[in-house]
Amino acid sequence: MKYRLGIDIGGTKIAYGILNEDGVIVYRHRSATNIKAGPAEFLQTLVTDIEGILAAQDFPRKDLIGMALGFPSYVDSDRGVIVMSGSMANLRGFDARDGLHEYFPDIRTVVDNDANIAAIAEHKYGAGRGFNHMLYTAVSTGIGSGLILNGKIYRGAYGGAGESGHMLITPDKGVLCGCDNRGCIMSNAAGSMIVKHAIEAIEGGRQSALYELAGGDLTKLNAAHINEAFQNGDALAAELVDQMGYYLGIYIYNFFVSVNMNCYVLGGGMILHFGDPLMRRIRDTFDRYNHYEGQDVTIKYAELKEDVGIIGAGELLV
Ligand SMILES: [Zn+2]
Q1: Distance, CA 141 to ligand 1 centroid (Å)?
Q2: pTM summary value
């Protein structure tokens, strides 16, 4: 039996899973993510965890055919380098693959962006099964996508394909994003940005239950508050959900007319939180602008749950 190690790096935890040849996760480990860590410190965490995991296995090390890591970052997978990271800004320039290679020279190491990995997993095992072209988009604190074209992940010249949450849609208008621009899709529709839009509106005099939900302290306002206010019929929260649905619908429309994919798989915390009302607004916006008759376009929920990052990472080693 041969084994693969999938590593899913998230904003709060690092999830490790050993997959056997049948794709079954036979061993799991978790550790906390230090989102402030720089490359040296982060590498040390990974090395310590991986050494512990390998020591705990009863199969010989040569039976591990590789390890693959997904980062919540812009990753140049060809070079194994973290180009930029919105949620883990200090990892910018982290040469993850070569760093790990120094400690584990006998183990093949692959590094990729988490949305690419989720796209690969959803395409093979989840909502994108049977589609030759598919876009996976995670809408959470940020917005990141993975493109499946002709059945394969497409990364582009510098690994930046799928960083399309930073496509400009209202240039120079709106909230400043980590991409150093105002008016990208993320700045209009990502979870962290929607919170900023809410704060701006309330500070501008808008009445909303969000103020009380945040305990009268707008620095404490988060997306869960917006969801709660939305469920209770708050007008501002409803406008913000409309706004997210609108820009995400436009996002999908723009992909449809540029790349002509016919399957859009949506995951991430915002999609889970706001569910059907948000999905309906996305669909309605797409339909309003799409005038190609008779071309089926599927917009659906992601299917794989919390193991998606481990499963998808494992696929990079197949
Ligand atoms: Zn941006």
Answers
A1: 12
A2: 0.95
